Amino acid sequence: MTVYAHPGQPDAKVEFKSRYEHFIGGKWTPPVKGQYFEDITPVTGKAFAEVGRGTAEDIEAALDAAWSAAPSWNASTPTQRALMLNRIADRMEENLEKIAVAETWDNGKPVRECLNADIPLAIDHFRYFAGAIRAQEGSLSQLDEDTVAYHFHEPLGVVGQIIPWNFPILMGVWKLAPALAAGNCVVLKPAEQTPVSLLVVMELIQDLVPDGVINIVNGFGVECGKPLASNPRIRKIAFTGETTTGRLIMQYASENIIPVTLELGGKSPNIFFEDIAQEKDGFYDKALEGFAFFGLNQGEVCTCPSRALVQKSIYDDFVAAGVERVQKMVQGDPLDTDTMVGAQASTDQLEKIVSYLDIGKKEGAEVLTGGERLELPGDLAGGYYVKPTIFAGTNDMRIFQEEIFGPVLSLTSFQDYDDAIRIANDTLYGLGAGVWARSANTCYRAGRAIQAGRVWVNQYHNYPAHSAFGGYKSSGIGRENHLMMLDHYQQTKNMLVSYSEKAQGFF
């Protein structure tokens, strides 16, 4: 067990500045209007830094810087881009603990997740796209003896990116790495709930990045996000967040006729077929862990397995064991490496979750465990903590249909395969899903039948760089990760060349 010192205490891994500016054109730049807002840590509920409150004027300044840098960076070689991305990865790896503690303090998630998942994944994504761009090739087709079609990958130019608060660094990297690898300059807006941790990373890597290639403007959605997403000077907008905001982003993109990537909400089914209980072995234990995975990142994951579907024949025994597993989750100081469930990211999110706990009870769902806010002692008393909660009910309830984005599991049973697929697909969303079965045939059939962009089979919450991620239905458009992401940040130029010296004979 390691308990990291809180920022401001002796031996703390990170010391935050009292005030953070925008990062524009390689310089830390105060907001044009001179306004700031407080960044509050959910660990204690107290403010720890001021952050520049950006407006349209700051977005324009960032776009000026990005377009000034674009001619050079757009024309850079894959080798140059890869070298920069690998150097960024190395620098982050050298400062792993500092970055992890910064993100925990900013977001409230357990530091063990930052140390072992979030930040190592972010580092790996930079390295992955460094390799991907070195390996990318264009193509040519010889159409006849004298005619050749060449296809070249070219950067879009300058792109806009809007990052969510649940994974402030990893989600930033998911968008930055392919965009930079493809040769684009970026104007990025972090979530106003968790702006500082990404700025700490930018401080660490700023000397590795040419001026204007990465620009970060902080602020609120209407004041800062909208001027970015609706700006005619960006060539693409990428957004991760709730579905209602995603609809607005799509409207802005359509006005400017630019591509859009939307990674939106989810209500992911996690299906447990009866053959998992044939033996109480390691696989069965793994399935129980999969049942409890709704608690990862306090349930603040768009692919959170927030609906558990358990076959009736094993329901009683499996659910009893699952509830016991959940009750053993350790809650406490997020900077303690033994803590499994940390603080919710903001007061708004805390209040939303608590309201759904009330909705579930009023709908008649049975509370199997949790169902209330958690009060911790000492400095943590003001933090935003919720007990992991399991509701038993039916799929027509609001707690089954609406995204809660907290450590809340809605549990129901199913009779057979067809019933499981029917319930799984009875949702507006289609981002993630889980299938647990010993039968390879069942795994394959269910994985193909579920309407979701990512289906985990006999696992959950694995996010490797070389696996495409994105949603069906109201869960979004486009994909994140995988080498296909380079195409999302590039345009294809076709040069159709005739090497014949003879006229075609039309005129």
So, the CATH homologous superfamily of the largest domain? Answer: Aldehyde Dehydrogenase, Chain A, domain 1
> What's the pLDDT, averaged over the residues?
97
Separation, N- and C-terminal Cα atoms: 83 Å
Overall radius of gyration: 24 Å
Per DSSP, what share of the residues sits in E-state strands of 2 or more residues?
15-25%
CATH level-3 fold name of the largest domain: Aldehyde Dehydrogenase, Chain A, domain 1
- Name of the CATH class of the largest domain: Alpha Beta
Outline the biggest β-sheet. Answer: 7 strands, mixed
Structure description:
- The chain is an alpha/beta fold.
- The protein has 15 helices and 23 strands.
- The protein has a seven-stranded mixed beta sheet with strand order 15-16-17-14-13-19-20, sandwiched between helices.
- Helix 1 runs parallel beside helix 7.
- It is globular.
- The chain starts with 18 loop residues before the first strand and ends in a 9-residue tail after the last strand.
Please specify the SSE layout and strand pairing.
Elements: E1 19-20, E2 22-24, E3 27-29, E4 36-41, E5 46-52, H1 56-74, H2 78-94, H3 96-107, H4 111-135, E6 139-144, E7 147-155, E8 158-162, H5 170-181, E9 185-189, H6 196-205, E10 214-216, H7 221-229, E11 237-240, H8 243-256, E12 260-263, E13 269-272, H9 282-292, E14 307-311, H10 315-327, H11 347-362, E15 366-369, E16 389-392, H12 398-401, E17 408-414, H13 417-425, E18 429-430, E19 432-436, H14 440-449, E20 454-457, E21 472-473, E22 476-477, H15 484-488, E23 490-498
Helix pairs in contact: 1-7, 2-4, 3-4, 3-6, 4-5, 9-10
